[in-house]
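Run log // design_07
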């Protein structure tokens, strides 16, 4: 919860002339952070196979102590279809490459959208804290309160709690949070939300419905997974490198060098908005153009020859 982890993620995409593309993922960080679910490397499916390795890096004076392991994942064969990563416990995004063929040129289009984490919708009271230093815990209390109260609303929709009883539960939770925040008891929030709820409702535990904690924990855990993903992404850094055939035309890349397009983003860029990347390139078919020129020249010479023969 202290957010001391840091992971650097590099995704390199190379588009081939035939329109297929290869992808390589490189993530550098602490081993436990590379194995968690906030940003998953691709895994084998029926259509796409991947090769993944995890290696320990030698320590040096330049690399921080947290960047000691590297995970590399490479697609075994170039792919042609759109790839979508939709696991709600991980970063959600898609990658798409489309080739359009014309007689004299081929057009290549790259598109990718990184879904927003929607922090402003989920935790509106902590938006003002998004740019704070990573070791600050100012946002944890309102985030945990959101998880608990949103879960209670879902539980209430099913259980139809008595109005007075519902207010008693909410008042107990409000009092617990106010007390802990006023006295800066950070340890009260450095735990799963289900445990926080049990602690907050301990004074009235004997009047709660049977199986209350068991049933509401199922709801809380879903929100807790999303919260865990978001906090884990807070210190992650991403860079996409794309190599397109031909001459690059329209794009929104941060930089282009030798035909290599580069985009980078971190938590702040996707906390409230989606992050879009696009680029297209054109590859001229020189052989067909040369062939056309030859045909035109031969045709022109043929016309001249026929005119010469007619004069004779």
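design_07 sequence
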């Amino acid at each position: 919860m202290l957010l001391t982890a840091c992971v650097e993620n590099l995704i390199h995409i190379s588009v081939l002339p035939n329109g297929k593309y290869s992808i390589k993922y490189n993530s550098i960080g602490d081993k436990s952070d590379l194995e968690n679910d906030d940003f998953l490397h691709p895994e084998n499916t029926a259509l796409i196979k991947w090769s993944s390795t995890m290696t320990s890096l030698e320590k040096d004076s330049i690399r921080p102590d947290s960047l000691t392991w590297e995970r590399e994942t490479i697609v075994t064969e170039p792919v042609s279809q759109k790839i979508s990563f939709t696991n709600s416990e991980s970063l959600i995004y898609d990658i798409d490459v489309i080739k359009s063929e014309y007689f004299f040129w081929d057009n290549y289009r790259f598109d990718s959208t990184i879904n927003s984490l929607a922090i402003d919708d989920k935790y509106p009271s902590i938006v003002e804290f998004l740019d704070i230093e990573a070791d600050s815990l100012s946002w944890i209390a309102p985030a945990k309160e959101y998880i608990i109260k949103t879960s209670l609303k879902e539980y209430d929709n099913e259980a139809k709690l008595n109005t007075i009883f519902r207010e008693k539960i909410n008042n107990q939770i409000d009092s617990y949070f106010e007390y802990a925040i006023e006295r800066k008891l950070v340890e009260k929030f450095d735990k799963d939300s289900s445990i926080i709820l049990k602690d907050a409702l301990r004074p009235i535990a004997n009047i709660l419905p049977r199986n209350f904690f068991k049933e509401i924990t199922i709801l809380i855990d879903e929100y807790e997974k999303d919260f865990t993903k978001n906090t884990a992404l807070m210190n992650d850094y991403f860079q996409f490198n794309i190599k397109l055939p031909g001459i690059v035309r329209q794009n929104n890349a941060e930089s282009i060098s030798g035909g290599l397009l580069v985009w980078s983003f971190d938590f702040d860029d996707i906390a409230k908005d989606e992050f879009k990347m696009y680029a297209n390139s054109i590859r001229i078919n020189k052989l067909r153009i040369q062939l056309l020129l030859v045909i035109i020249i031969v045709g022109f010479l043929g016309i001249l020859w026929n005119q010469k023969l007619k004069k004779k």
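The chain has two domains: 7-118+235-288, 125-230.
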